[in-house]
Amino acid sequence: DSGVTQTPKHLITATGQRVTLRCSPRSGDLSVYWYQQSLDQGLQFLIQYYNGEERAKGNILERFSAQQFPDLHSELNLSSLELGDSALYFCASSVAASGTAMNTQYFGPGTRLTVL
Amino acid sequence: AQSVTQPDIHITVSEGASLELRCNYSYGATPYLFWYVQSPGQGLQLLLKYFSGDTLVQGIKGFEAEFKRSQSSFNLRKPSVHWSDAAEYFCAVLHKAAGNKLTFGGGTRVLVKP
């Protein structure tokens, strides 16, 4: 158990809908990262937050957005869902936004999203 | 551009035999390198990491990896595989200047024969 929690574990929804994925980082970690794992794209970085502020963006679609709250949990919002958004979404956390050992990212169990 | 290549998509190994998983990276500076394992239906578990210093790093579950700068490689090894090692293994490089994102290789799926 990494200490990173994600809810829900599974999510099934229809095209055009909007969903919210939630992540709680490990105790003491200030940085949260979101990754998408799909069969065709592999594991891809989406976005990073550090202590409530967005720090880096990767291949995140405009239909997707995220935020980190004062209690440090994070939510990933996916809207106007398409079939191709079906994937496993991981959250990871680390102590800091930069540095050496503090860069180590610990992953949650993931949320499997199925868009029908 | 930074990238990670895992040349072997699948590897089948007998229980008790040794295992080596290859990882090659492309990165402009000294890399921070990681190996993660994903068991079926599970998240990613950190096996080991390399930041600096000794090029042979030890990890959990009896795994080790060796960083070879001249070959841009960070291969993962285990002397004797157990059936529970059947999983998918991912090598990753940390982009220190790009928000500390991880770039992952495509993964190597390991099957363990009894």
Q: Care to describe what's here?
A:
With 116 residues, chain A is mainly beta. Chain A has strands at 5-7, 10-13, 19-24, 31-38, 42-50, 53-57, 64-68, 74-78, 87-94, 106-107, 111-115. The mean pLDDT of chain A is 93. With 114 residues, chain B is mainly beta. In chain B, 0% of the residues lie in helices and 54% in strands. In chain B, the strands form 3 sheets. In chain B, strands 2, 5, 6, 10, 11 and 12 form a 6-stranded mixed sheet that branches. In chain B, β8 and β9 (73-78) form a beta hairpin. The model of chain B has no long low-confidence stretch (mean pLDDT 93). At the A-B interface, β4, β5, β6, β9 and β10 of A face β5, β6, β10 and β11 of B.
Largest sheet of chain A: 7 strands, mixed
Count of β-strands of chain A: 11
N- to C-terminal distance of chain A = 31 Å
**Helical coverage of chain B, percent range:** under 10%
Distance between the termini of chain B: 41 Å
Q: What's the shape of chain A? A: globular
Per DSSP, the total helix count of chain B is 0
Contiguous low-pLDDT stretches of chain A (5 residues minimum) are none
Mean pLDDT of chain A: 93
Order of helices and strands of chain B: EEEEEEEEEEEE
Given the helix and strand composition of chain B, which structural class is it?
mainly beta
